[in-house]
Amino acid sequence: MSQKLTLALSKGRIFEETLPLLKAAGIEVTEDPETSRKLILATNDPQVNVIIVRASDVPTYVQYGAADFGVAGKDVLLEHGGEGLYQPIDLDIAKCRMSVAVSAGFDYASAIRQGARLRVATKYLLTAREHFAAKGMHVDLIKLYGSMELAPLVGLADAIVDLVSTGGTLRANKLVEVEHIMDISSRLVVNQAALKLKRERLQPILEAFEKASIQ
Ligand code: PRT
Ligand code: MG
């Protein structure tokens, strides 16, 4: 196998927050995904390419070896399941929390006390199912692909499970957080076969990432 490496990243915060870690490994991306329409970006190292994919597709590209390694949020990894992936480092980037939120006027505590069967909209079906099952709550989950904050406002759901960082989106839509499910950050994920076959190339990069991410 050639020692060419492909790194899968998503545009936006993960790309931006991975750049300093790449730099610590001596890798500089020479094209900007926000202005270029290219999906395969070159770096200063002819042996390293970056591919730009949807955040939730990063684990899939790495699992099948289309990318040797990638960066993905814990939220995405929990839904993917982690099959075929080695997850050596929590990079401590793209931090946020996963929470349950409801409309400001909705009495979540008393709905639970009364054993109401709540409708919950989310992109994170597995994590949400596990959270409510652990609490012994029966909920009907509604799968959405984005803009979860809208669901309680238009009567699609009583509650949402979504990511929160500043809380600004919740506030702007008159929603309040009622439960903190977990803290989220992004991890480096590595294809299990690549880790063995390209160890020589990957190991120094993993070490540089690890060193840079704990600073
Ligand atoms: O946008 P797209 O549909 O392509 O995919 P995505 O939303 O999964 O990608 P992206 O790039 O937005 O997020 C990538 C990863 O960043 C996620 O998988 C998380 O691990 C992490 N992350 C960190 C976040 C946030 N912070 C975050 N605030 N992902 C999303 N958000 C959203 C949140 O869903 C909500 O709509 O931002 C909004 C809340 O932000 P505040 O600051 O208003 O609270
Ligand atoms: Mg997004």
UniProtKB/TrEMBL annotation:
<dbReference type="GO" id="GO:0000105">
    <property type="term" value="P:L-histidine biosynthetic process"/>
</dbReference>
<dbReference type="InterPro" id="IPR018198">
    <property type="entry name" value="ATP_PRibTrfase_CS"/>
</dbReference>
<dbReference type="InterPro" id="IPR013820">
    <property type="entry name" value="ATP_PRibTrfase_cat"/>
</dbReference>
<dbReference type="GO" id="GO:0005737">
    <property type="term" value="C:cytoplasm"/>
</dbReference>
<comment type="similarity">
    <text>Belongs to the ATP phosphoribosyltransferase family. Short subfamily.</text>
</comment>
<dbReference type="InterPro" id="IPR024893">
    <property type="entry name" value="ATP_PRibTrfase_HisG_short"/>
</dbReference>
<keyword id="KW-0368">Histidine biosynthesis</keyword>
<keyword id="KW-0328">Glycosyltransferase</keyword>
<dbReference type="InterPro" id="IPR001348">
    <property type="entry name" value="ATP_PRibTrfase_HisG"/>
</dbReference>
<comment type="function">
    <text>Catalyzes the condensation of ATP and 5-phosphoribose 1-diphosphate to form N'-(5'-phosphoribosyl)-ATP (PR-ATP). Has a crucial role in the pathway because the rate of histidine biosynthesis seems to be controlled primarily by regulation of HisG enzymatic activity.</text>
</comment>
<keyword id="KW-0028">Amino-acid biosynthesis</keyword>
<protein>
    <recommendedName>
        <fullName>ATP phosphoribosyltransferase</fullName>
        <ecNumber>2.4.2.17</ecNumber>
    </recommendedName>
</protein>
<feature type="domain" description="ATP phosphoribosyltransferase catalytic">
    <location>
        <begin position="54"/>
        <end position="210"/>
    </location>
</feature>
<dbReference type="GO" id="GO:0005524">
    <property type="term" value="F:ATP binding"/>
</dbReference>
<keyword id="KW-0067">ATP-binding</keyword>
<dbReference type="Pfam" id="PF01634">
    <property type="entry name" value="HisG"/>
</dbReference>
<dbReference type="GO" id="GO:0003879">
    <property type="term" value="F:ATP phosphoribosyltransferase activity"/>
</dbReference>
<keyword id="KW-0963">Cytoplasm</keyword>
<comment type="pathway">
    <text>Amino-acid biosynthesis; L-histidine biosynthesis; L-histidine from 5-phospho-alpha-D-ribose 1-diphosphate: step 1/9.</text>
</comment>
<keyword id="KW-0547">Nucleotide-binding</keyword>
<comment type="subunit">
    <text>Heteromultimer composed of HisG and HisZ subunits.</text>
</comment>
<keyword id="KW-0808">Transferase</keyword>
